[in-house]
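Follow-up to my post from last week.
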Amino acid sequence: MAPVDLSYTAEEEQFREELRTWLAANIPDEWTQPGFWRALDDDESFRLRRDWEASKTAAGFSGIEWPTEYGGRGGTPGMKALYDEEMVRARAPQTVNVLGLTFLAPTIMAIGTPDQKAEIIGPMLRNEVIWCQGFSEPGAGSDLAAVATRGVRDGDDYVVNGQKIWTTNAMHGDKIFTIVRTEPGSERHKGLSMMLIDMDQPGVEARPLKQMSGASEFGEVFFTDARVPAKDCLGEIGAGWRTAMLLLSFERGASGVGQYTEFRRQYDEIVAEARRFGRSDDPVARQKLANCLVELECLRYHAMHILTQVEQGRDLGSESSMTKLQWSETFQDLWEAFDDVLGPEASLARPRPDVDLTPFQHQAMWSRSVTIWGGSSQVQRNIVAERVLGLPR
Amino acid sequence: MFFALTDDQQAFATTVREFLADRFDLDAVRGVVEDPHGDGHPVSLWKGLADQGALAVLVPEEHDGLGLGLLDAQVVARELGRGVAPGPWTATVLAAEALRLAGSPEQQAAWLPGLAAGETIGTVALRGEAGSWDGRGITVDASGQNDGVSRLSGTASPVDYPSVAGLIVVAATDPSGTPGLFLVESGASGLAIRDQETYDGTARVGAVELADTPAEPLGGGTLSGAAAVAALMARGAVLTAADLVGVAREALTRTVDYDRERKQFGVPVGSFQAIKHTMADLHVAVTMAEHAVLFAAHAVDTEDPGVDVAVAVAKAKAADAAWAATGAMIQFFGGIGFTWEHEAHFFYKRARRRAPLFGSADEHRARLAALTMD
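User reply:
Got it. Predicted complex:
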C-alpha cells in the first residue's frame, strides 16, 4: 500500500479538464458577479438555473457517480469530489434538484420498484420533475418520529392530511417525498410510510416562508385530502422510518471538498474586506480569522479522509455527523468573524458608495440556519456521543 | 486519493503501543514522575524503542536507518504521547534530522548510525528565554570559523534532556547575522547544563549555557543557514503536534470510558448531555487534529507548496485540542481527577508544557494570518 497520496487518477484529471472547459464555455460572465442571483426575481432565478442544469445534464455532467443505466456518468467518488470543487470554482449556479439528486435518487436505486427506477430518475436528472423533501413538521423538527401527517387508505389511494415545513423549493416543486403516518394510532417510528406525492393537485398548497435574512429558500406545504396512489410508496408501507434512515444515509461527506473550496473563497473575500476597512493589522482580528482558517483546513483534510473511506468501500456510519458539525460550525464561525472583524461597517449595506456588503450580510444571516437544518448541532453531538463514543443514552 | 495510514504504518503504531502497554505502563511513568531528580530516561524503555526502529525511522538506510518519512515518525510520536512516555525520543530524532538535512556526508557518517541505534542521545537547542520559534528567537552567538570550529556563547532554554545528551544541535547566529546549526558535544569546554525543574514529570529539561564553547558548524548538506533552522523547526512542530494529538486522544478515551461507568444521581454521568456534548466536540476536535498532523507530515515529506500553512494548522489545532481534552479529563473525572494519585495530571501537564514548544497555537495562528492576509 502506498503512503498518503493526494493525487487523482489520470482519468479523473481528464474528467476535470472536460468539465472545466464545459463550465467555462457555458456560464455567462454576469452570472458569476456578486449579487446577480439575489437581484433576480425568485421564479426567474429558478427558471434560469433549472434550464442551465438541464443543459449540463445533456452534456453528460450530472449524476457523476451514478451508474450509466440510470443516465449517470458511471464515474468514481474522486470525480464526484472534483465535480463539486469545479462547480464552486466556476461559480456555477446552485443545483435546483438538490434533494432529489442527493437523497431520493440513490434510495430509489437501492430499494425502488422497477417502475419507480424507470419513471423517476431520468426526469429528475433532466430537471423535468423537481423534487421536494417532506420530513419536518411544526411538531416534528429534531424529533422526526413525532410526524403527525396522516394517510388513510381509500381504494387504491391514500388520502393525506397534515403540514410539512422547512421545505426547500416548496414553491417550485413538482413532487414531494413525504413521511406520512399511514397506520392509524401508530406511534413514533412505527406505522410510517414514504409516499411520493404529486404537488400539482388541489389538495396540496405550498406557501413561501420568509426567513430572517429576508429570502425564502424554504416553504411550507399543506396537505388537505391530497391523494397519492398506494403504489407510489417508496419501500414498503409501514416501513417509512427504515426508508427515511436509508435515504438520510446518502448525505455523504464527499461534498466536503466542494464546501471547503467555497468557504475558503469566502475567507479570502472577508480578508479582502478587512483590509479595505483597515482592520487586517489588528492582532485580535488576525487571530480570529486565522482560527477560522485552521478549522477550514481541517475540513479539507476531513473531506480527503471521507473520500478515502468512500473509495475503500467503507461504511461511513455516524461519521457524517462529524462532517456536519465541522462544516456547519466552521461556516458559522467564519461569518461571525466577518461581523467581529469589520465592526460597525459590517452592518451597513453600503459603508462606502462603491462597496456593497449585502451579499456578505446574506451569508452571515444564512449561517445561522446551517447548524439547525439537516440535523441540528445538538442532535449531531448526541449521535457522536452515543454512536461513536458509546456514551449511554 | 489515499489519505490514511497504510497497513504498515498502523502495524508500526500497534507495535509501539503494545510495547508501552506491556513494558512501560502508567505505573512505570509514575515511577519517573515521582523521581524528579532522576534523569527521566529509563534505559529499558530506550532500548525497547531502539529495538523497534523507533529511533531509526528518519535516518537514511546508508547510515543504518529505516529511511522513512515524517509520516512514519509521527506514528511513533503519537503513540509516545498516548502513553505519556518519558525520554529523549523527540530530541534525538530532531538532532538526527538536523544532521540529515544540513550535515556533510562525513558529519552524517560520524553521528547518524549512533543516533539511529540509540547509542547516542541527541537534543536540539533552538531558542532562548522569551524568544520566538521562527529563528528570530535565537540567543546564542557564533564566532567566525577557525579550522572548521566556531565558538558559541549564550544560553538556550528550555532544552529537552540536555543532561543525558551526548550531542547537542545548537542554533546560533554568526557575526554577519545569519542563523545556522552547530554541533556541540557533551563535555565540551565552556558548556554547562543547568537542570530546570518542570511540572511535567514525563520529561527532563534544562538550560544549555555556552561560554566560548567549541562547536562544529553543520554544513555541506541539502539545507543551510536560516532554511536549515526553519526546516528543523517545522519538523519539531509536526512531531510535537503528533505527541499532543496522542495525549489528547488518550485523555479523551480514558474520560469517556470512565464516564460510561461512573454513576451519580443513579445514572452514568456520561448520559448527561452537558458531558456528552463536550465529549462529542472534543472527539471532533481531536479527530481534526489527527487529520491535520497527518497532512502536515505528508506536506513536509513531499515539500508540498502549502507546507507552511499545513504545519501551522497542525500545531495550532493539536495544541488547542490537547489543552481542551486534558482539561476536560480532569473536569469529567471529578474530584479524583484532581488528585496526585490519579493519572490525569500526567496528561494535562504534558499537554501544557508541550503546547508552546515550536510555537504556541497563537504564534502559529499569527503565522497563518501573515501567510494569508498580508
